[in-house]
């Protein structure tokens, strides 16, 4: 589990780095990005996890997310993991962008041949946090989590299962009910098998219906997002939260799509929202 | 010269677009990016040109430059052209990243077979401005120009030849004396021939020595830039400006390299500097 540095760049007074390590959980080398702001010289800093969407690696948000200026000002470490295991020995389906490489869906697969490597849930919640705690000036008592699309799904479900670990959770255009959305239910079947009860712990709506709770959520959603009606459907989560008494701020953003041009527009709003809760 | 829209994205309240047109000057289709801020609804806005470096297209700064948030706040149109002609009928040297595609060096080539297409100087100073004036809500009486590396060279030389057109000029890590730098002098010979006198009008240091003047310059340069000593050498331009009585602010930035992690760090400084001069 030793970590290797792939690249570092000075940026906004801090250090944007890319790192790899041999992941025991995923059975392959895993790459991730971390931004450490300049305030790290003075002591451990809070950590904000960003989980990316389908087809992404750690690099998409690192290059296009525009989080560094404000993270450097506020003093927040930003961790950007990959979205799946990768490598020659990792089974994949190269013709399907909604399964395999780039599409780990933040679950622990139970079906072979995927069960050995596709364990992104445990990777994100156990192995990588332990590495971050050991290798970076991180205050692991102050963690929050957010993400985009499939990564929004990851953030919501992981927060709902760890309400005492994460101080706050938000999402850009999350997949709120992946068990019933076309672009995720097929992957769930291949990773988790045909028993749909086993899917519910990886579905934000189902988790809330089954009793999971979190303090509050913030969601920004582009109203011109082409995946809105079939894949994302934030109104399903809105209804679940209302019935469960969970506070949800859902901002529908007129004219915005699913791209990083949308994400970067509202990135600062999310950073400030998390910072308030990380430092409260 | 009719313009086609390739893509548009709403971002920071404005519109980031990518467009193509059949360029008469370059003899091929040319692609460029324009960001139009929300204030365009109220009337024409000043225009800031960003010229990119070797290997880049319009897309690099559009994706990684982090200019939209502040440009939207200040109300500045940002135009990001490509760095060379491209296409099946455009002669190229695919083995040389310092010549041909992605390496137009903002000159008008005079040597065949390059003279027909490699006319980036006229493209940037005549054809594209005419298109921008016609197709966008641009106040062409208020233009400024900046760029990175090869594009910094482009910005400095174009401003020095048009001191009345551009209100201000700045650069990130510019090639200030391309006629004597290894990564540019070979390209100059292939585009312009062996008569080195003909190269001087495309060299910022030579232009100043030959009498060209501009009101003032701002340059940011990473002190850890691996191209600093052999390719960039801002001290050469500093000396020319001092001898010519031209005001130059040269900021050497400790620890920063040649990447967009450096550019995006100082982007806001440059935008504010140009905005002051565009609205003075």
From TrEMBL, chains A, B:
GO terms for cellular component: cytosol
Reaction(s) catalysed by this chain's protein: S-formylglutathione + H2O = formate + glutathione + H(+)
Catalytic residues (UniProt): 149, 225, 258
Molecular function GO labels: carboxylic ester hydrolase activity; S-formylglutathione hydrolase activity
Keyword Mitochondrion found: no
Pfam families: Esterase (PF00756)
Function: Serine hydrolase involved in the detoxification of formaldehyde.
UniProt name for this protein: S-formylglutathione hydrolase
Naturally occurring in which organism (per UniProt): Nitratireductor aestuarii
């Amino acid at each position: 589990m030793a970590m290797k540095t792939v690249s570092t760049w000075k940026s906004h007074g801090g250090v944007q780095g890319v790192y790899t390590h041999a992941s025991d959980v995923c059975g392959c080398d895993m790459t991730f990005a971390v931004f450490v702001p300049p305030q790290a010289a003075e002591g451990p800093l809070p950590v904000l996890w960003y989980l990316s969407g389908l087809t992404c690696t750690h690099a998409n948000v690192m290059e296009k997310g525009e989080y560094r200026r404000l993270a450097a000002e506020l003093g927040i470490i930003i961790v950007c993991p990959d979205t799946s295991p990768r490598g020659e020995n990792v089974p994949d389906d190269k013709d399907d962008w909604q399964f395999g490489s780039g599409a780990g869906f933040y679950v622990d697969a139970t079906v072979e041949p995927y069960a050995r490597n596709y364990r992104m849930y445990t990777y994100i919640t156990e192995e990588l946090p332990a590495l971050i705690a050991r290798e970076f000036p991180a205050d692991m008592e102050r963690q929050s989590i957010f993400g985009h699309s499939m990564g929004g799904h990851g953030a919501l479900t992981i927060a709902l299962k760890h309400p005492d670990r994460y101080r706050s959770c938000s999402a850009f255009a999350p997949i709120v009910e992946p068990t019933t959305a076309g672009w995720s239910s097929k992957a769930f079947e291949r990773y988790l098998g045909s028993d749909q009860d086993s899917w519910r712990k990886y579905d934000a709506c189902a988790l809330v219906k089954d009793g999971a709770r979190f303090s509050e959520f913030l969601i920004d959603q582009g109203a011109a997002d082409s995946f809105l009606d079939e894949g994302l459907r934030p109104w399903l989560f809105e209804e679940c939260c209302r019935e469960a008494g969970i506070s949800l701020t859902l901002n529908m953003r007129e004219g915005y799509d699913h791209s990083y041009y949308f994400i970067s527009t509202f990135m600062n709003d999310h950073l400030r929202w998390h910072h308030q809760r990380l430092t409260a």
